[in-house]
Amino acid sequence: MPIVGTKFPWGLLLVVLIVVLSGAGKSLCEGAPPAGAAGALPPLEPADISWLWPVPETVADLGRIHTIDSLAANGGQPVWSDANFAEFIQTAKASAKVGSNAADIPSEFETRANWRIVSFRVDPSAPGGHADVRAKLGETPQIRLILQPVTTSGQEVVVHDVAAHVVFSFLKGGPTPEPDRDAFGKVIEDLRKLKQLCEEGGASTKGLPLGIHPGLAKPVAGLDAAVAKFLKTHLSADRLTALAIMGIDGPEPWIFLAMAKFPPGATKFGPVAFLPAQMLTMRTNPPSVVPQPVVTNRLPISAQRVQLSIPDVERRGVATAILFKPGLDLNAAAVVGSGPGGPLTDPQLKVRDIADLIANPEKAHFFNTDCVSCHTETRRRMRLGLATGQFAYRVNGKVPEVAQAVLPKDDWNVRNFGWFPPHPFLGGGPAVATVTQRTANETAEAAKALAELYPGR
Predict the structure, then answer these.
(1) What is the pTM of this model?
(2) DSSP annotation string for 394-426
(3) What angle, 0 to 180 degrees and rounded to 10, lies between the N-to-C axes of helices 371-384 and 437-453?
(4) For 132-179, how does the pLDDT look when each residue is reduced to its tens digit (9 = 90+)?
């Protein structure tokens, strides 16, 4: 969801809307070296900072998939407090709606223990690691959990096509918070210990395309417990800064809603007033995005964030909504705005480049691009057979890789980094792990930023 504009402590809200803690330098597993030896450990790769669990196939497998309810810090206090969880459910029921469509929140979703951690991402600088983005929008270190409701029916595991983002940020200071690099540095040190545990267990992360974490797939002995300890050590309720839900009015549409303690100074999570829910529906022909995306990703990177505050005639940007329309001329110049004489096009950007731009974290970020675009760029690219072009994100000249097995195989799969349960009319079957190009690109950029911002940690 987009934002752009005004002056007050937006750095704090930035944390909130992406789309830990203290001196816990303890060893996460037997045989791990002390924190002082962290520099001797191998550098972190993308697979070390974005962790995706394999989908549980049996009820017994659920024992390996941590519930958010099982994570407690600060003497046993849950990292997602009773009050904040209640606010999440209440806000989802009241505000995850567009027109007559509303996300379904059945009673099972109101039990915190049913929300499982399907993945998490460690990011040294939200909303982006590139120097230009950091200069304008600040640097917010984060750990972001992706949760999905998982229930059982007899011996069957039921994964629901719903997700929550639970964001923990490492900030210190007053009205304009700064990154807490000391606390986040300890996160990095413990990630390297997890990496070492995987290496010793025969699950190397070096040079891998992003997919299910190799240590979790193997699985490496002791890793489940070590990861749980890592999360318990570095997460706490006082670092929870943002929530979001992608709900569904089954079998669709999908509805996206961001939540924050807003305005600044508020004590409860609720919807962000200037950031309305957004919906993708395939019940229309062609599929449509409602309301229409408000984007500014073809303007220079700016410290302004509330896009709705920018006059229509000044906005320049693209979204994947256009890529659902039939009869597209993929080689035509992309429409990026409107002026007195009608639509404005970008001579450098072709329609076929839109998915690449959306997936490029140097150009598109949380504050200039809509939610639906970031959740559909990979499927639009695959559906339209789009080759990577000049706007694709590259590291050392190479586009970050996604493991073929986890690329989304169906247009109905709008997961970015989680599990998709195929609907019965799609043939049904077990849920599948999913990773998008945008996620791989963001992870690769985060790995670069880690090396730059935290050398020697």
Answers:
(1) 0.90
(2) -BTTBPPPB-GGGS--STT---SEEEE---GGG
(3) 120
(4) 999 998 999 999 999 999 999 998 999 999 999 999 999 998 777 899
Amino acid at the residue 289: V
pLDDT digits (tens, 9 = 90+) for 103-118: 999 999 999 999 999 9
Strand partners, 51: 120
CB 444: neighbour CB atoms within 10 A?
25
Query: What CA–CA distance (Å, rounded) separates 350 from 97?
Result: 33
Cβ–Cβ under 8 Å, residues 324 and 355: no
d(CA 440, CA 7): 32
Question: What letter would DSSP give residue 210?
Answer: B
For the cut 50, the answer to whether the pLDDT of residue 25 exceeds it is no
Q: Where are the domains of the chain?
A: 10-25+48-453
- Please state, in angstroms and rounded to a whole number, the distance separating the CA atoms of residues 278 and 291: 6
pLDDT at 100 over 50: yes
DSSP result, 30-56:
TTPPPGGGGGGSPPP-HHHHEEEPPPP
